[in-house]
Amino acid sequence: MPTDTPDSLIPYDEIVQEALRAVVGRVLGEVETTGRLPGEHHFYITFKTAAAGVDIPRHLSERFPDEMTIVIQNRFWDLKVGEDGFEVGLSFNQAPARLVIPFSAITGFVDPAVNFALQFQAQAEEAGPQEHEEAENDHPVAEPVEDGSNVVSVDFSRKK
Questions:
Q1: What is the CATH number of the domain that holds 59?
Q2: What does the alpha-carbon distance between residue 99 and residue 31 come to, in Å, rounded to a whole number?
Q3: What is the model's pTM?
């Protein structure tokens, strides 16, 4: 009996990634609707800066040519959530900036207030996220998720 698993004709990995990214969209949509973050919730969102559809100021894309993490917490404005992504105003070193981020560019979403995290497979590459500096938008530093509870990580690597 062969031990090789046949290649699927159904793109399960893409379907699951889209569904998990929809969680991010729904959460951000709730914040857009209410105009505020509930309780102590706040979000760290990591995304590929060179991904298709990402629109950020040039000084940020030069500083973070691959990936950056933003914080949605105290100082954000004009959050608009669409079917394919979101846009938000943030302050970087006291300078306002508008960012447009498609959900497909997101590689990580963390809500440290409740120890919840989602990690997404980068669509353009097989390797995991590379080390990068935080974006340093004006925010207090929160403790990272340490125990891994409520973390969903999906890895669709296949053995061939």
A1: 2.30.30.220
A2: 17
A3: 0.73
